[in-house]
From TrEMBL:
Keywords: Transferase. The keyword Transferase applies. Pfam families: GST_C, GST_N. Residues 1-80 form the GST N-terminal domain. This is Glutathione S-transferase. CDD domains: GST_C_8, GST_N_GTT1_like. Gene3D superfamilies: 1.20.1050.10, Glutaredoxin (3.40.30.10). Signal peptide: none annotated. GO terms for molecular function: transferase activity.
Amino acid sequence: MDLILYTNPQSRGRTARFMLEEVGVPYETVILDYEGAMKTPEYLAINPMGKVPALRHGDQTVTECAAICAYLADAFPDAGLAPPPARRGDYYRWLFFAAGPVEAAIMDRYRKLEPDDEQQRMLGYGDFDRTIAAIDAAVTRHPWLAGDDFSAADVYAGSQIDWPMQFGMLTPTPALSDYVERLRARPAYVRANAIDG
Ligand SMILES: N[C@@H](CCC(=O)N[C@@H](CS)C(=O)NCC(=O)O)C(=O)O
Protein backbone atom coordinates (compact mmCIF):
# COMPACT_ATOMS: atom_id res chain seq x y z
CA MET A 1 0.00 0.00 0.00
CA ASP A 2 1.07 3.59 -0.72
CA LEU A 3 0.49 4.79 2.86
CA ILE A 4 1.88 2.94 5.87
CA LEU A 5 1.52 3.87 9.56
CA TYR A 6 4.13 2.41 11.91
CA THR A 7 2.68 2.51 15.38
CA ASN A 8 1.88 0.85 18.67
CA PRO A 9 -1.68 1.10 20.04
CA GLN A 10 -0.31 2.44 23.34
CA SER A 11 1.61 5.37 21.95
CA ARG A 12 1.43 8.80 20.37
CA GLY A 13 0.70 6.81 17.21
CA ARG A 14 -2.95 7.15 18.23
CA THR A 15 -2.79 10.80 17.18
CA ALA A 16 -1.38 9.86 13.78
CA ARG A 17 -4.17 7.31 13.34
CA PHE A 18 -6.76 9.94 14.32
CA MET A 19 -5.31 12.14 11.55
CA LEU A 20 -5.36 9.29 9.01
CA GLU A 21 -8.99 8.59 9.86
CA GLU A 22 -9.79 12.28 9.38
CA VAL A 23 -8.11 12.16 5.96
CA GLY A 24 -10.15 9.10 5.10
CA VAL A 25 -7.80 7.38 2.65
CA PRO A 26 -6.85 3.69 2.91
CA TYR A 27 -3.65 2.94 4.79
CA GLU A 28 -1.79 -0.05 6.10
CA THR A 29 -0.78 -0.36 9.75
CA VAL A 30 2.43 -1.95 10.97
CA ILE A 31 2.34 -2.58 14.74
CA LEU A 32 5.75 -2.51 16.40
CA ASP A 33 6.39 -3.75 19.92
CA TYR A 34 8.44 -1.65 22.31
CA GLU A 35 10.93 -4.35 23.20
CA GLY A 36 12.19 -5.48 19.81
CA ALA A 37 10.65 -4.28 16.57
CA MET A 38 11.19 -0.55 17.18
CA LYS A 39 14.93 -1.09 17.49
CA THR A 40 15.63 -3.33 14.49
CA PRO A 41 17.98 -1.98 11.78
CA GLU A 42 15.03 -2.04 9.35
CA TYR A 43 12.93 0.23 11.54
CA LEU A 44 15.85 2.43 12.62
CA ALA A 45 16.31 3.16 8.91
CA ILE A 46 12.77 4.61 8.98
CA ASN A 47 13.09 6.41 12.32
CA PRO A 48 16.62 6.59 13.76
CA MET A 49 15.01 7.44 17.13
CA GLY A 50 13.49 3.96 17.24
CA LYS A 51 10.16 5.53 18.17
CA VAL A 52 6.62 5.52 16.83
CA PRO A 53 4.73 6.86 15.03
CA ALA A 54 6.27 7.02 11.58
CA LEU A 55 4.59 7.33 8.23
CA ARG A 56 5.64 6.16 4.79
CA HIS A 57 3.88 7.68 1.80
CA GLY A 58 5.35 6.52 -1.49
CA ASP A 59 9.01 7.52 -1.24
CA GLN A 60 8.44 9.94 1.64
CA THR A 61 9.12 9.12 5.29
CA VAL A 62 7.72 11.36 8.02
CA THR A 63 8.32 11.04 11.74
CA GLU A 64 7.13 13.29 14.58
CA CYS A 65 3.43 13.33 15.20
CA ALA A 66 2.99 17.03 14.47
CA ALA A 67 4.85 16.69 11.17
CA ILE A 68 2.76 13.65 10.23
CA CYS A 69 -0.44 15.63 10.83
CA ALA A 70 0.78 18.65 8.85
CA TYR A 71 2.14 16.43 6.06
CA LEU A 72 -1.13 14.52 5.66
CA ALA A 73 -3.18 17.73 5.59
CA ASP A 74 -1.04 18.98 2.70
CA ALA A 75 -0.77 15.64 0.90
CA PHE A 76 -4.55 15.17 0.90
CA PRO A 77 -5.98 18.70 0.48
CA ASP A 78 -9.45 17.41 -0.40
CA ALA A 79 -9.88 16.47 3.26
CA GLY A 80 -9.86 20.22 4.09
CA LEU A 81 -7.67 19.86 7.18
CA ALA A 82 -5.43 22.89 6.60
CA PRO A 83 -6.52 26.49 5.99
CA PRO A 84 -5.45 28.19 2.75
CA PRO A 85 -1.73 29.19 2.92
CA ALA A 86 -2.48 32.90 3.45
CA ARG A 87 -4.61 32.07 6.51
CA ARG A 88 -2.26 29.73 8.33
CA GLY A 89 -1.09 32.04 11.13
CA ASP A 90 -3.01 30.36 13.93
CA TYR A 91 -2.71 26.95 12.32
CA TYR A 92 1.10 27.02 12.36
CA ARG A 93 1.25 28.75 15.71
CA TRP A 94 -0.74 26.07 17.55
CA LEU A 95 0.82 23.11 15.72
CA PHE A 96 4.31 24.26 16.72
CA PHE A 97 3.21 25.43 20.16
CA ALA A 98 1.79 21.98 20.88
CA ALA A 99 4.91 20.16 19.63
CA GLY A 100 7.26 22.42 21.61
CA PRO A 101 5.97 24.21 24.71
CA VAL A 102 2.93 22.00 25.40
CA GLU A 103 4.91 18.76 25.02
CA ALA A 104 7.69 20.05 27.31
CA ALA A 105 5.25 21.40 29.91
CA ILE A 106 3.39 18.11 30.12
CA MET A 107 6.52 15.99 30.21
CA ASP A 108 8.01 18.14 32.98
CA ARG A 109 4.80 17.80 34.96
CA TYR A 110 4.91 14.03 34.41
CA ARG A 111 8.49 14.06 35.78
CA LYS A 112 7.35 16.29 38.67
CA LEU A 113 9.69 19.11 37.61
CA GLU A 114 8.41 22.57 38.50
CA PRO A 115 10.62 25.39 37.12
CA ASP A 116 11.57 28.27 39.40
CA ASP A 117 11.25 31.90 38.26
CA GLU A 118 14.69 32.02 36.61
CA GLN A 119 14.15 28.70 34.83
CA GLN A 120 10.78 29.93 33.58
CA ARG A 121 12.49 32.72 31.68
CA MET A 122 14.72 30.19 29.90
CA LEU A 123 12.17 27.46 29.28
CA GLY A 124 10.18 27.89 26.08
CA TYR A 125 7.00 26.96 27.88
CA GLY A 126 7.54 29.26 30.86
CA ASP A 127 5.36 27.33 33.23
CA PHE A 128 2.62 24.74 32.89
CA ASP A 129 -0.31 27.00 33.81
CA ARG A 130 0.74 29.76 31.41
CA THR A 131 1.05 27.25 28.56
CA ILE A 132 -2.35 25.71 29.16
CA ALA A 133 -3.91 29.16 29.61
CA ALA A 134 -2.74 30.10 26.10
CA ILE A 135 -4.62 27.15 24.60
CA ASP A 136 -7.61 27.87 26.81
CA ALA A 137 -7.77 31.46 25.54
CA ALA A 138 -7.59 30.26 21.92
CA VAL A 139 -10.50 27.82 22.27
CA THR A 140 -12.49 30.40 24.21
CA ARG A 141 -12.20 32.77 21.22
CA HIS A 142 -13.40 30.24 18.62
CA PRO A 143 -14.44 26.59 18.45
CA TRP A 144 -11.23 25.29 16.87
CA LEU A 145 -7.63 26.41 17.20
CA ALA A 146 -7.32 27.86 13.71
CA GLY A 147 -10.75 29.53 13.81
CA ASP A 148 -14.21 28.27 12.94
CA ASP A 149 -12.99 25.23 11.03
CA PHE A 150 -11.49 22.05 12.42
CA SER A 151 -7.93 21.42 11.18
CA ALA A 152 -4.87 19.23 11.63
CA ALA A 153 -3.81 21.66 14.39
CA ASP A 154 -6.76 20.35 16.42
CA VAL A 155 -5.90 16.72 15.73
CA TYR A 156 -2.39 17.28 17.08
CA ALA A 157 -2.73 20.03 19.70
CA GLY A 158 -6.10 18.67 20.84
CA SER A 159 -4.57 15.23 21.36
CA GLN A 160 -1.69 16.82 23.27
CA ILE A 161 -4.14 18.08 25.89
CA ASP A 162 -6.63 15.21 25.64
CA TRP A 163 -4.29 12.57 27.00
CA PRO A 164 -3.03 14.42 30.09
CA MET A 165 -6.68 15.14 30.85
CA GLN A 166 -7.40 11.40 30.64
CA PHE A 167 -4.55 10.69 33.05
CA GLY A 168 -5.54 13.40 35.53
CA MET A 169 -2.43 15.50 34.84
CA LEU A 170 -4.43 18.46 33.57
CA THR A 171 -7.53 19.84 35.26
CA PRO A 172 -9.51 21.36 32.40
CA THR A 173 -11.19 24.75 32.40
CA PRO A 174 -14.79 24.75 31.08
CA ALA A 175 -13.56 25.95 27.66
CA LEU A 176 -10.89 23.22 27.44
CA SER A 177 -13.36 20.62 28.59
CA ASP A 178 -15.87 21.66 25.89
CA TYR A 179 -13.09 21.74 23.31
CA VAL A 180 -11.93 18.22 24.09
CA GLU A 181 -15.55 17.01 24.08
CA ARG A 182 -15.90 18.41 20.55
CA LEU A 183 -12.68 16.62 19.60
CA ARG A 184 -13.82 13.30 21.09
CA ALA A 185 -17.12 13.54 19.20
CA ARG A 186 -15.35 13.54 15.82
CA PRO A 187 -16.25 10.30 13.99
CA ALA A 188 -12.56 9.92 13.06
CA TYR A 189 -11.54 10.14 16.74
CA VAL A 190 -14.10 7.47 17.64
CA ARG A 191 -12.96 5.18 14.80
CA ALA A 192 -9.27 5.65 15.59
CA ASN A 193 -9.81 4.84 19.25
CA ALA A 194 -11.89 1.79 18.41
CA ILE A 195 -9.09 0.46 16.17
CA ASP A 196 -6.29 1.11 18.66
CA GLY A 197 -8.43 0.05 21.60
N1 LIG B 1 8.44 13.43 19.44
C1 LIG B 1 7.90 12.15 19.02
C2 LIG B 1 7.76 11.27 20.24
C3 LIG B 1 7.56 9.85 19.87
C4 LIG B 1 7.64 8.96 21.10
O1 LIG B 1 8.27 9.29 22.12
N2 LIG B 1 7.07 7.75 20.99
C5 LIG B 1 7.13 6.80 22.07
C6 LIG B 1 5.75 6.21 22.31
S1 LIG B 1 4.57 7.46 22.75
C7 LIG B 1 8.05 5.65 21.65
O2 LIG B 1 8.01 5.23 20.53
N3 LIG B 1 8.87 5.15 22.58
C8 LIG B 1 9.69 4.02 22.34
C9 LIG B 1 11.12 4.20 22.77
O3 LIG B 1 11.54 5.34 22.99
O4 LIG B 1 11.81 3.20 22.86
C10 LIG B 1 6.55 12.35 18.29
O5 LIG B 1 5.87 13.34 18.60
O6 LIG B 1 6.19 11.56 17.42
